[in-house]
């Protein structure tokens, strides 16, 4: 499997895609080129993540991957915020959360489950992840309810948004302290490694330093290619008459999360389901508890604060995704059928968004 | 206890009830006769299920019982669909789901709990059942929210309904494959059987073939008697001025689920709580994930598609029933108080429906 | 730590506060005096509870504390009901429920978690508490939905309220029978006591009889001081222009629950997290399942029944608090971060209520 990630093919597809973008070739051609490049770049990223995870442990590796994976989204969202396109920002944040919780997690659990009957990960971590997800939903849900049932001034809405955003950022930073420092061991992966790690085919081909370097490089490449791909999407989707909500919440999110997708699925298929869950769930938590609040503060400095009030449909989509993901992960064990259930919910939401 | 299910009494009450129905006797008399017949027929079904469960294991026995129990409802619903009475179909589906999750499950856990301090069943199965229930709620909830917040054409509503129905049917068939084939052992009952099955009083009095034959026969009889009873209800309830919603969701559902009621309670009192849960929860899952979607497709072929949009009250009732049932079953252990809580929620819903 | 609860200081602050109240001194002075008195009285109560818990076990001790703690609220609420101030009653009930589930529980878990890496309590009890909380939410939620979607007469609303109240009271009394009689041992605390109880510094300084006497005395003192404090609040808050909803749901609730606060936090810091959870969760359950229904019946006898229909915001606040508290307690293990999450949700709700 690793053979096809040839360095030369990786470089060629990336460069071709770059030329297509900057020379402004036909959008359909650009789309095809960058789509091919995404496959190779994501594969590269997956391999780098796996290598780093080997040195750093599944959880830190997963966290690094989730963070690097979200870097692209944060950058894109910053540009959208500067242009005041708040609805599109919220749609893509929503899409990113449900894409990670349903599509990435679903495919990982499903693919891993086809190879391994049952896959286990730290059940305490699963419970904490669930609680964090619920806090994220509450933080989005409560302001929306208050706004819909009471007449609140714009100033009060902004104040509420900033306070909630601040609470979320503090919660997220405290979570990093908790999970990386005070309770690191407590949340460690289930050690199925002992039986697994024996054959030396599993030894990574890169050194520790090289692995980290490649992880950063691959993430940057993914960020670029994702943006080029997203750039072509709008004109393409106009041609096919798709709604903005569907494009923002599904197409952009799927492509923007290509890194998480490939890395998580590859890890799950190597029975490292703990790292796969960390990528998928960790990435969605990072978006809800860190990326979204940071964007609200960033918008505040542009003089036109983005409020934290999502639309009813977005709230329902996030709430629904959190409930089923929490229900499926909370016992710390997964199987193919649970992956299929997550995908079923993703399809139901996707068709609903498509038809609106 | 088994003594009173005398074959002759069974036959006499059944035949009397049949004559009353086809000769169109006075409705009150018909009601009394078929109500008495239901008691005997349901007792017969309970005994046959228990016997099959002895040969097939608690879970397959429970599944068979749930399926045969729902056959009656499916047949009745088909007739209602053919006549376009979609509101009544939805009310009776709702009633069947909450009746199984609250009344059947509640009485089983309560009755079993009075005899045994704590009853255990497979905790993994409990978790999966919970996730399936949540998917069922999501599938009903999401289309309703989209319809209430956006202007959607009838054609789009029908498309959404059919897609969601298709996703649910695939999920249900995959569930059968998962629970009966790929992960059969994984979901096996807690083996309290060892201590239990020793005395030969527990040996079934029927052979394997006879048990299956009797199971089918008893189910068919239940289906007939239930229909006769339901037939008399409408005129009776008109006399007492009850609302259609209450009749559809409570009276019809209670009587239509007589088979599940008696079988599940008897099994719970013999400490086979795993089979009782399988009947109650399995039956409600079958209705939400299979019976309802099949009815939608069936209605499609009549040229007037039944949409999947339930009323707010029905959604709340189903959602509430799923949450409390999930919370109570998720640890794989039950006691009398948990049964009482389920019944408390059933009473709250029943009084609310009655007063509307 | 025990040194500062000197009997003489306790008596002096209490008497000063009493004089200030009955001599009707300046409200700001009254407020300061009774606030200081609350600190000493609550400390006294915490010590008495701890002593009783030593003799009675953590759970019975926790129950006693919760009951004595709620006695104050029940008395205050009775006066409000007699004056027909139903909105304020509901706001303070709401505040009391979320205050216990988020603030008391959050501070206890956080403080205990700073001293002990992980604190454990009976996981079965945690699950049952969760189910009881959900029944409480359902009982408040269902009538509100029915009232908002259907035209129901006032008489029907009253009937529904009384029936639901009756179901709740029966459920609560059955819960006492279950947890104190039929399944007492089953719900016993995790016995970390063996290692803990060895040093005789933990031996209580009071006899069993004296402990109970002091518990009652301290509770009565808390009730008085709380009321004096609440009495000064209204004029103070008017001066600062706060909304009644915020005052009722936050200020009154925080002060009215001072007893639970101090007792629960002190117990958690002594690694008796089981008793702390029992106080916080048990107190909120008692309010939802017993105090609120009793008030409805009490109002019925005044000829003007208080209905069980809470406002949307109150329902959302209670629902949100229950979901996060259930998610955090359900594994029977707590750490500082989980306490912080509860406090984060409390802050989000507090700011929202403040801004309305």
From TrEMBL, chains A, B, C:
GO molecular function terms noted in the UniProt entry: calcium:proton antiporter activity
Recorded topology in the membrane: Multi-pass membrane protein
Domain Sodium/calcium exchanger membrane region as annotated: residue spans: 28-180, 211-349
Recorded GO CC terms: endomembrane system; membrane
Keyword Transmembrane: yes
Pfam families documented for this protein: Na_Ca_ex
Gene Ontology biological-process entries: intracellular calcium ion homeostasis
Transmembrane parts of this sequence: 30-48, 60-81, 93-114, 126-147, 159-178, 212-233, 245-267, 279-302, 308-325, 337-355
Keywords annotated in UniProt: Antiport, Calcium, Calcium transport, Ion transport, Membrane, Transmembrane, Transmembrane helix, Transport
Compartments, record wording: Endomembrane system
Main location: membrane
InterPro entries in UniProt: CaH_exchang, CAX-like, NaCa_Exmemb, NCX_ion-bd_dom_sf
Domain of life: Bacteria
Entries under PANTHER family matching the protein: VACUOLAR CALCIUM ION TRANSPORTER
Family listed: Belongs to the Ca(2+):cation antiporter (CaCA) (TC 2.A.19) family.
Its biological purpose: Ca(+)/H(+) antiporter that extrudes calcium in exchange for external protons.
Protein name, UniProt field: Ca(2+)/H(+) antiporter
Species name: Paenibacillus rhizophilus
Lineage of origin: Bacteria, Bacillati, Bacillota, Bacilli, Bacillales
């Amino acid at each position: 499997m690793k053979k096809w990630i040839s360095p030369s093919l990786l470089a060629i597809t990336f460069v071709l895609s770059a030329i297509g973008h900057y020379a402004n070739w036909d959008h359909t051609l650009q789309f095809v080129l960058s789509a091919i490049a995404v496959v190779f770049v994501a594969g590269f990223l997956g391999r780098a993540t796996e290598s780093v995870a080997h040195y750093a442990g599944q959880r830190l590796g997963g966290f690094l991957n989730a963070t690097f994976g979200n870097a692209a989204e944060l950058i894109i969202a910053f540009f959208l915020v500067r242009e005041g396109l708040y609805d599109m920002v919220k749609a893509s944040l929503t899409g990113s959360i449900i894409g990670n919780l349903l599509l990435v997690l679903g495919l990982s659990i499903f693919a891993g489950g086809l190879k391994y009957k049952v896959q286990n990960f730290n059940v305490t971590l699963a419970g904490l992840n669930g609680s964090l997800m619920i806090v994220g939903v509450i933080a989005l849900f409560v302001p929306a309810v208050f706004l819909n049932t009471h007449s609140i001034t714009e100033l009060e809405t902004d104040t509420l948004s900033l306070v909630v955003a601040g609470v979320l950022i503090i919660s997220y930073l405290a979570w990093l302290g908790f999970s990386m420092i005070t309770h690191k061991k407590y949340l460690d992966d289930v050690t199925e490694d002992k039986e697994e790690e024996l054959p030396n085919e599993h030894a990574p081909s890169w050194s520790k330093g090289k692995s980290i370097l490649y992880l950063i490089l691959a993430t940057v490449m993914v960020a670029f290619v994702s943006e080029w791909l997203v750039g072509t999407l709008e004109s393409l989707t106009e041609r096919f008459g798709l709604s903005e909500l569907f494009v923002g919440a599904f197409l952009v999110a799927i492509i923007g999360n290509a890194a998480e997708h490939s890395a998580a699925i590859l890890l799950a298929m190597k029975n490292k389901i703990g790292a796969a869950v960390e990528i998928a769930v960790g990435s969605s938590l990072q978006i809800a508890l860190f990326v979204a609040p940071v964007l609200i503060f960033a918008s505040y400095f542009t003089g036109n604060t983005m409020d934290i009030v999502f639309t009813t449909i977005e709230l329902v989509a996030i709430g629904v995704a959190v409930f089923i993901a929490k229900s499926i992960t909370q016992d710390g064990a997964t199987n193919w059928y649970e992956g299929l259930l997550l995908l079923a919910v993703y399809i139901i939401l996707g068709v609903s968004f498509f038809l609106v």
